[in-house]
Amino acid sequence: MTRAGSRSRSPLAPRSPLALRRTLPAIVVDDTVDAAAILLDKWHPEGSSSGRSLFLNSTTPDEADSFLRAAKDLHRAMLFYASGLTTKDLHGGGHGLIEAQELLDTAMRRLQLELKILLASLPNVIQFQHDDDIQSTDGLRETCGHLRAVAEAMLAVGYGTECVSIFKAHRRSSVAAALQCLQVFSPSLQQATINKLTWDQIDPKMQCWLAGARTAFKSVFVGERELCDRVFAGDNASVGDVVFSAVADDQATSILAIAEAAVARAKRAPERLFRVLDVHDALTETIIPAIVVAFGDESELKARAVTLAVTKVADAARGMVASFEAAIEKEPAKATVPGGAVHPLTRYVMNYLVFLADYENALAQIYSAEQFTDTSSSVGSGSGGTVGSSSTVGSGSGGTAGSSSSVGSGSGGTAGSSSLVLSSSTTLRTLSLWSNPIGWLVSVLKLKLDAIAGNYREAALSYLFLANNTHYMAKKVGGGTKLEAILGEEWAEAQTAKARGYMEVYVRRRAVRRPDVTLTQQLALARQRN
After folding, report:
1. Distances (CA, A) of 21 to 30, 78, 91, 93
2. How sure is the predictor about 424, in pLDDT bands with cuts at 50, 70 and 90?
3. In angstroms, rounded to a whole number, what is the distance separating the alpha carbons of residues 479 and 512?
4. What one-character-per-residue DSSP string does 167-207 give?
5. Are 310 and 242 in contact (CB under 8 A)?
6. 7, 14, 401, 502: which one has the fewest Cβ atoms less than 10 Å from its Cβ?
């Protein structure tokens, strides 16, 4: 009993008299089919060789090439038999065509097996070294060469559907496994799950997402794109595009959907601003450039990622900055600190800004004119936003902020006149806030401190309060910090000079009450305490 795909007639069997009258092309085609039958019998997909690979077995490199040529020859033989150019003998357009088709189908089943073996030998994450001196990826390059040869052979003879189906199924599974290892996409980290979690539960998951998403787009998807480009090259490039899209599109979209859901849950709470800015940095620094490389500059995925960064993340960040500003303004102006010491609000805001300065580039992009042109919208107290758990910053007390028009009024005399006071007009506000939110927040803080200083009953204490708080701000900014790079070295020096000026006014006013101590001595004592 013969096996399916094998020839029932031996190549050496005597031919019928009719066969002797065949044309020379027919003889050549018959001999080609006979030779292919012998090779297929050795490498039959259900035979003893099914556990070995034509391509990965170093003892059979010539046979691998011969097998690929045999597959092409069988396809040509089918076309020849179907052309009607042969005589109506045993082989002409009848038995010969059927036999060649059966052999070709057997060859394709063998190549499908080879395709699975080769794909199984690949790692989940494809990483090519583009240095000719590095041999760590020689095996990977060789395997890709074999995959390309198999794919080209299958596509050339009309078995592209089977080839693409096997490739897609295997690589989708590999990419999914790689993403799970990166903890960037799992049952516990999906868009639907994020919507049901509290922020305290979301935040640690987003830390994993930030690291995993960068690697996923920069390594996993870019590597997969290069694999498809290498296997489906030349005339088959369009097939590679379809395969890559089927393997990666929905998985990449799911990763972005997680960030979209997390940013939406962040709302306007200022303490969540840093995580939102982390997402912005991941998108602009790594993810979007990698999407351009892997998915294309005109891809829907790139448009979605840009929308996430430029619109959703940026809007959320601006809302959080506005909420932080509102929280500063809502600090009660009557909440003076005993002895004119540094106010908790000053400590909280300046420490917040120290961390915020690490995101200078992100803030510059978010507040750039190209990304935000609606300068007529109000920010801060006029935005109508809620501050959330941080509605009272620093001191933890509630109440209504004092009016900025009262800065420097009352017993403080001219205490507020030398501090930085900005107009709340739309034009100046736009110039300050949209170009430098950190500078604007410092301005808002100084206005609030002026208002608090104006509520001291003793004029001298108002100057001491301004001296201490201005000195604290200058100290936080100076010394080569990122805040100093943003606000300027001159700004820090000017605040230090103002702090000294406030202290001198304080000492002079105290000198009236301490006639036994000279002004020079009181200044020296005050500077020692501060």
Report:
1. 13, 20, 12, 16
2. very low
3. 36
4. HHHHHHHHHHHHHHHTTSSBTTBSHHHHTTS-HHHHHHHHH
5. no
6. 14
Query: Per-residue confidence at 335, pLDDT binned at 50, 70, 90?
Result: confident
The position carrying tokens 């090259």 is: 233
- Identify whether the C-beta of residue 485 lies closer than 8 Å to the C-beta of residue 353: no
Q: Where are the alpha helices (DSSP H) in 425-458?
A: 426-429, 437-453
pTM of this prediction? 0.77
Long-range contacts of 126-134 (CB under 8 A, 24+ apart): 126/223, 126/224, 126/226, 126/227, 127/219, 127/223, 128/223, 128/226
CA 111 to mean position of chain CA atoms? 37
- Confidence (pLDDT) at 510: 76
pLDDT at 128: 83
As given in the structure block, the two tokens for residue 408 are: 């420097």
Alpha-carbon gap, residue 463 to 530, rounded angstroms: 13
What DSSP string describes 278-340? HHHHHIIIIIHHHHHHHH-TT-HHHHHHHHIIIIIIHHHHHHHHHHHHHHHHHSBTT-PPGGG
Q: What is the DSSP string of 476-526?
A: HHTTT-HHHHHH-HHHHHHHHHHHHHHHHHHHHHHHTT-TTS-HHHHHHHH
Q: Contact, 110 vs 159, CB < 8 A?
A: no
pLDDT in tens, 520-530: 555 565 555 54
Calculate the CA dihedral of residues 233, 145, 147, 179 and round it to 10 degrees.
Answer: -80
Closest CA to 90 of 31, 30, 11, 38: 30
504-516 pLDDT tens trace: 999 888 765 555 5
CA angle 142, 148, 151 (to 5 degrees): 145
Length of the chain: 530
The residue ranking higher by pLDDT, 120 or 388, is: 120
Rounded Cα gap, residues 372 and 117, in angstroms: 53
d(CA 116, CA 169): 10
CA distances, 329 to each of 355, 470, 521 (Å): 20, 18, 38
Residue 144 C-beta-side C-alpha neighbours within 13 Å:
20
Could you tell me the CA-to-CA distances from 331 to 273, 390, 447 in Å, in that order? 20, 11, 11
**Residue in the block written with tokens 């300065």:** 357
